[in-house]
């Protein structure tokens, strides 16, 4: 039995990595999916892949840092599917582990813009749709273990992900029970973001309980759970999906 029947899910950064896996997993669970990304070819490919497997998906080329583009994402979703039930603010960029003394204004604002301002813009634009209807709206924000401890990124990345967890809690506080907002905190995951640092990820995860990095599908499975009624009493939390990275 599918766990997201008749749901409409918007996933940002869905052209690759975890966003792609989330979009495909949501479609497998019966949701209609809006694949949002700045990467036109990638987003189109993901939507076509979902449709070719019998699922329902459209690609919307959108930049989460741009208010007009975000409005377009919401408008296209309403035109195509009528509402928004699940919003996954997943698009993100890394900061090459740059410490504060070496971070340019451009790097700082660029990372904050995508990782924190983007989720704010799209959540605000989607709120009326998420609040509509009898069922609660669901927001899932892809944070990181860098949202809980230092060292999982540089200054801008760590700050953005700590901020995203705070944003998730405040959203939950202000809009529960109509909206169920949660964050996911992945550890090291093999995606487009990290494919140049596989050796580093192996070293970073060697001492964790799982002793390995993750595949994106392992994070998407948790997103499906959080989007489903199985998570009906899960509000405002930041779920570690990190192979136990944070146990020590
Ligand atoms: N890979 C990891 O180890 C890891 C760990 C913890 C958290 N994360 C977080 O997971 C999320 C997904 O990252 P990933 O690892 O799958 O990386 P990825 O690079 O494979 O995917 C990120 C996607 O976001 C898109 N994107 C970037 N800027 C955008 C914008 N302004 N508007 C719309 N789309 C944009 C990119 O085109 C890309 O398709 C990010 O928020 C990242 O910070 C990743």
Describe this structure in words.
The protein has one domain (8-240): 3-Layer(aba) Sandwich (Rossmann fold), CATH 3.40.50.720. Helices cover 44% and strands 16% of the residues. It is built from 7 helices and 7 strands. The chain has helices at residues 17-28, 40-52, 67-81, 105-131, 155-175, 198-205, 216-227; strands at 8-12, 32-37, 56-61, 86-89, 137-142, 179-186, 238-241. Strands 3-2-1-4-5-6-7 form a 7-stranded parallel sheet, sandwiched between helices. Helix 1 (17-28) links the parallel strand 1 and strand 2. It is globular and about 45 Å long. The site of nicotinamide-adenine-dinucleotide has 29 residues, from helix 1 and helix 4.
Mind describing the biggest β-sheet?
A: 7 strands, parallel
**Tally of DSSP β-strands:** 7
Which ligands appear in the coordinates?
nicotinamide-adenine-dinucleotide
Mean pLDDT: 97
Uncertain ranges: none
H/E element order: EHEHEHEHEHEHHE
Q: What percent of the residues sit in helical stretches (DSSP H or I)?
A: 40-55%
Strand % is 15-25%
Q: Rounded to an integer, what's the Rg over CA atoms?
A: 17 Å
Give me the secondary-structure category.
Answer: alpha/beta
């Amino acid at each position: 039995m599918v766990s997201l029947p008749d749901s409409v899910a918007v996933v940002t950064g869905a052209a690759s990595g975890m966003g792609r896996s989330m979009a495909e997993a949501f479609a497998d669970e019966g949701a209609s999916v809006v694949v949002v990304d700045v990467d036109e070819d990638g987003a189109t490919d993901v939507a076509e892949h979902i449709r070719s497997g019998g699922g329902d998906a459209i690609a919307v080329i959108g930049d989460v840092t741009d208010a007009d583009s975000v409005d377009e994402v919401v408008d296209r979703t309403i035109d195509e599917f009528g509402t928004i039930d699940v919003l996954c603010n997943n698009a993100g960029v890394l900061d090459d582990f740059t410490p504060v003394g070496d971070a340019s204004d451009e790097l700082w604002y660029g990372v904050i813009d995508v990782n924190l301002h983007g989720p704010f813009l799209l959540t605000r634009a989607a709120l009326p749709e998420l609040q509509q209807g009898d069922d609660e709206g669901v927001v899932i924000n892809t944070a990181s273990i860098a949202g809980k401890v230092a060292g999982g990124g540089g200054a801008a990345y760590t700050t953005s992900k700590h901020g995203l967890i705070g944003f998730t809690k405040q959203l939950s506080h202000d809009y529960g029970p109509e909206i169920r907002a949660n964050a996911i905190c992945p550890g090291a995951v093999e995606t487009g973001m990290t494919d140049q640092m596989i050796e580093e990820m192996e070293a970073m995860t060697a001492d964790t309980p799982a002793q390995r990095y993750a595949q994106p599908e392992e994070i998407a499975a948790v997103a499906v759970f959080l989007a489903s009624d199985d998570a009906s009493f899960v509000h405002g939390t930041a779920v570690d999906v990190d192979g136990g990275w944070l146990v020590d």
